[in-house]
Amino acid sequence: MDFKTIAILGPGLLGGSLALSLRRLCPDVQVHLWGRRRVVIDEIVQNDLVDLASTDLKEVLAKADLVILTTPVGIMQELSLAIRDVGGMASGCIITDVGSVKEPVMQVFDQVFGDTDITCIGSHPMAGSEKMGMAHARDDLFEGACCVLTPPADSSEVEDAKLQALQQFWEKLGMRVRVMPSAEHDCLVARISHLPHLVAAAVVEVAFDGEAKATELAGTGFIDSTRIAAGAPEMWTEILMENRLAVMAELKVLQAQLGDAYAFLEEKDEENLMRFLSDAKGHRDSVAER
Questions:
Q1: Residue range 184-289 in CATH 1.10.3660.10
Q2: 5-180 has CATH 3.40.50.720 classification
Q3: Which pLDDT score is estimated for 1?
Q4: What is the CA 205 to chain-centroid distance, rounded?
């Protein structure tokens, strides 16, 4: 581990899970955790979950050589400005985040830290839950999942070395790491994360439509296929709005697919309906096997 002091800003599900993972896998690393709510920080201190937990940003950032923003995307700019103003990190510090939309975050990083010696690299550990908060944090949340890194477009040799250090950090937590431009990342997650959330929400609303009590018949299939619709509406509204152009493009693709399915049913085209379902099963099985 190249990092000696890691500052985690935000004690939610991901921030809390990061802290627990580091405590288990990297016991020699100093872990600092910042949060705005005194009651949450007090609970973290009482349970001795990290080396330092505080509502004082300066105290948490002191000598940190890796700072991880685990807050909602909507407050990244405010928090980044506060980090720049407070300072106190180690020379050559790396700042990253865990947001599920990367292009807006990378723009904020460039605007705020572009004229400093701080290297900013986007991270998206694709692990989580529909449950939120430190109470649901787990020390194995990241194991086996994929993490996407989005470095600045004009990376220097120094930044490339820091990219490698950050990649090794996520791999130490058990993640598979991929590196790509932030714009490409946002298009891909629109397909496999943001669009499915909208679809799950729509399926739930269809089930509750009308006077018929369809949900009285719902079982595990309905619960499994709509699980992600239970995610925090405030968080998902923010994510979908931040990545709305990419999501809108994928919605058009989905509309075309649903149009085909409608046509197969309308025309009693059993052959093409079977092909449609078989292709989907094969593609889904290949992901599950991997």
A1: yes
A2: yes
A3: 66
A4: 25
